[in-house]
Design goal:
alpha+beta; 6-stranded mixed β-sheet; 3-stranded antiparallel β-sheet; 6 helices; 19 strands; about 20% strand
């Protein structure tokens, strides 16, 4: 049996919805969840009737509980290959809907547990979207709520612990997105395996017919000084959230990348322009985005 020394068993494997063993797979990632409830004690009892489970849960006061043996497969990611290669951590919420806040003590404890898991399984430096993921990376879900914007903080704190240093100063429990300056956003993208996630909405400043296709320009994402040819986003990649039919793209409309284009691989970097280049494989080549802006919108 393998359980973190930071955790206390609670309702340990008292429910049917997990699978014995890992089918020969190694653990290479950690998946972050929120419980969508403030009732810490209700978990894992709900897994007696719901086909789900997780290895650990963290309470509002930082208490860490163990629900499933790490040697076994918890049903948490909504993706079977991911379940087989990951450890799932649930986090109790400090408030209910719609905000589902997370207490700072919960985040602090999460960093300690992530550090412990990363150390024991040789995951190396903890990097969001490389070995630390939100639940929403693997299935269509709002989980892990505010914790999606806290991944970098959890990773930074975990790395500080494993490097023998002190945890970084506490931050607000709001769902502020990580920000960066200079080329540090490029460094973060590279450290994350040249991967990106861009699920948030943004404003279409203008839409024009350029180079034979309709394209959107978005100041929230555009890299300077790139021109239309390099900066414009083909509207076929986007949904117009301000239009029920999704196709008007009026100036000032709220838009979002279609689901199939919301994550992928960064193809090029421009350090001098602090920009990332993405080929969405739509036949129109690379689109350049400001690295800091792109990072802040994941």
């Amino acid at each position: 049996m393998t359980v973190s020394g930071l955790a206390t068993p609670y309702g340990f494997q008292s429910f049917p919805n997990y699978t014995a063993g890992r089918q020969g797979n190694s653990i290479n990632k950690i998946v972050i969840h929120h419980m969508a409830t403030t009732d810490y004690n209700s978990v894992p009892g709900i897994w007696n009737s719901r086909q789900a489970s997780a290895h650990y849960g963290i309470g509002q006061d930082g208490t860490i509980r163990s629900y499933v043996d790490e040697d076994n497969t918890a049903w948490h990611a909504g993706d079977w290959p991911t379940n087989l290669t990951s450890i799932g951590i649930e986090h109790a919420n400090a408030t209910g809907a719609p905000n589902y806040d997370i207490a700072q003590a919960t985040i602090d404890a999460s960093a300690k547990l992530v550090a412990d898991i990363a150390n024991r399984y040789g995951l190396g430096t903890v990097v969001p979207y490389k070995n630390l993921f939100p639940h929403s990376q693997f299935t269509s879900t709002a989980c892990p709520g505010q914790l999606k914007g806290k991944l970098q903080e959890i990773a930074d704190r975990a790395n500080a612990i494993n490097n023998g240093g002190q945890s970084v100063p506490t931050q607000s429990t709001t769902n502020a997105q990580p920000t960066s300056t200079g080329s540090s956003a490029i460094d973060k993208f590279k450290a994350g395996g040249d991967r990106f996630v861009l699920q948030g909405s943004f404003i279409n400043n203008t839409c024009e017919l350029q180079y034979g296709i309709y394209q959107s320009r978005a100041d929230e994402l555009s890299a300077v000084p790139f021109a239309w040819k390099d900066n414009g986003i083909p509207t076929k990649l986007l949904d117009d959230l301000s239009d029920p039919n999704g196709r008007s793209f009026n100036d000032g409309a709220t838009v979002r990348f279609k689901p199939q284009y919301q994550r992928g691989t960064i193809d090029k970097y421009s350090v001098n322009a602090n920009a990332v280049g993405i080929d969405f494989l739509d036949g129109n080549g690379i689109i350049w985005f400001d690295a800091d802006k792109f990072w802040a919108h994941y």
